[in-house]
């Protein structure tokens, strides 16, 4: 090995070692910054409760022929005291399969169609009916309610779950109960969408 090639390879080893040290230093700085960031209190404004007493009609997307397509999707006042939800004992996990697999599963498609057929057949005032399920989504996601403060005064800000951190947990809750309703209508507690 000649002297020139030996010297250049030695220099490249030094650069590589220096590069590794810089890489580790950048990782360490990133971790320190992340810990500092996570230790800070949350600075987002909270989403306040809805003003259930005030609910306004909401506008839906209208077709070219329709001038106004406002609907009343407000939920009725509860007839009984609210029950605290308790998570049921889970015997096994319910697994949601990909939609492209379900399309070819004749048994699943038949259950799915039967569940929605029975849901649509329920009276409109039944909380499990498809219309009431749609009202639940519509009222909280189409700005039917206004947010209210702790002293029950309205803020004037619409309650729109799609534009806040509540989007994922609220919709996860909605799908959870929707699946439970569908499963109860076809006597299949493991039914999933």
Automatic annotation (TrEMBL):
<dbReference type="InterPro" id="IPR050316">
    <property type="entry name" value="Tyrosinase/Hemocyanin"/>
</dbReference>
<feature type="signal peptide">
    <location>
        <begin position="1"/>
        <end position="44"/>
    </location>
</feature>
<keyword id="KW-0479">Metal-binding</keyword>
<protein>
    <recommendedName>
        <fullName>Tyrosinase copper-binding domain-containing protein</fullName>
    </recommendedName>
</protein>
<dbReference type="InterPro" id="IPR002227">
    <property type="entry name" value="Tyrosinase_Cu-bd"/>
</dbReference>
<feature type="domain" description="Tyrosinase copper-binding">
    <location>
        <begin position="128"/>
        <end position="193"/>
    </location>
</feature>
<dbReference type="GO" id="GO:0046872">
    <property type="term" value="F:metal ion binding"/>
</dbReference>
<dbReference type="InterPro" id="IPR008922">
    <property type="entry name" value="Di-copper_centre_dom_sf"/>
</dbReference>
<keyword id="KW-0732">Signal</keyword>
<dbReference type="Pfam" id="PF00264">
    <property type="entry name" value="Tyrosinase"/>
</dbReference>
<keyword id="KW-0186">Copper</keyword>
<dbReference type="GO" id="GO:0016491">
    <property type="term" value="F:oxidoreductase activity"/>
</dbReference>
């Amino acid at each position: 090995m000649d002297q020139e090639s030996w010297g250049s390879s030695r220099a490249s080893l030094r650069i590589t070692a220096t590069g590794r040290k810089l890489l580790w230093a950048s990782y360490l700085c990133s971790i320190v910054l992340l810990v500092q960031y996570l230790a800070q209190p949350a600075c987002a404004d909270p989403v306040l409760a809805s003003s259930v007493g005030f609910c306004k009609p909401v506008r839906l997307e209208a077709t070219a022929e329709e001038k106004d397509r406002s609907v009343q999707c407000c939920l009725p006042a509860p007839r009984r005291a609210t029950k605290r939800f308790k998570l049921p004992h889970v015997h096994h996990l319910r697994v949601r399969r990909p939609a492209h697999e379900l399309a070819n599963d004749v048994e699943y498609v038949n259950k799915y169609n039967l569940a929605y057929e029975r849901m649509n057949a329920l009276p409109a005032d039944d909380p499990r009916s498809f219309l009431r399920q749609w009202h639940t989504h519509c009222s909280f996601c189409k700005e039917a309610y206004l947010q209210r403060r702790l002293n029950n005064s309205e803020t004037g800000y619409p309650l729109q779950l799609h534009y806040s951190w509540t989007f994922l947990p609220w919709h996860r809750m909605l799908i959870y109960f929707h699946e439970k309703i569908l499963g109860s209508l076809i006597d299949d507690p493991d039914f999933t969408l």
